[in-house]
């Protein structure tokens, strides 16, 4: 079974670099979210095995929330 990883990162360049690195290592990236709200939506549908989470997100909720 292929491990599914979700990336929560509000900086698109950083998120893209992480995604590329993970995919080259053989992982499936199930989604990239730029906010806590979007991350929760992706988790509901994709059920990732692991979430890489930036704790300093822009907006009213951070990765700590």
Describe this structure in words.
By secondary structure, the chain is α/β, with parallel strands linked by helices. The chain contains two helices and three strands; from the N terminus they run βαβαβ. A three-stranded parallel sheet has the order 2-1-3, sandwiched between helices. The protein is globular.
SSE blueprint:
Elements: E1 4-8, H1 12-24, E2 28-33, H2 36-46, E3 50-53
Parallel strand pairs: 1-2, 1-3
Characteristics:
65 residues, 3-stranded parallel β-sheet, alpha/beta
Summed up, what is this model?
This protein is of the alpha/beta class and 65 residues long.
Radius of gyration: 11 Å
Mean pLDDT: 91
How far apart, in Å, are the first and last alpha carbons?
Answer: 30 Å
Enumerate how many helices there are, as a single number: 2
Global morphology: globular
Relative helix content: 25-40%
Class based on secondary structure composition and strand pairing: alpha/beta
Please mark out the parts with pLDDT under 50 across 5 or more consecutive residues, or reply none. Answer: none
Q: What characterizes the major β-sheet?
A: 3 strands, parallel
In total, the number of strands is 3
Biggest sheet, spatial arrangement of strands: 2-1-3
Oligomer: single chain
Order of helices and strands: EHEHE
How much of the sequence lies in strands comes to 15-25%
């Amino acid at each position: 079974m292929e491990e599914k990883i979700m990336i929560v990162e509000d900086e698109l360049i950083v998120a893209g670099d992480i995604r590329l690195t993970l995919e080259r290592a053989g992982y499936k990236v199930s989604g990239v979210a730029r906010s806590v709200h979007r991350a929760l939506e992706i988790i509901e549908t994709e059920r990732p095995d692991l979430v890489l989470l930036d704790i300093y997100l822009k907006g009213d909720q951070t990765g700590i929330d």
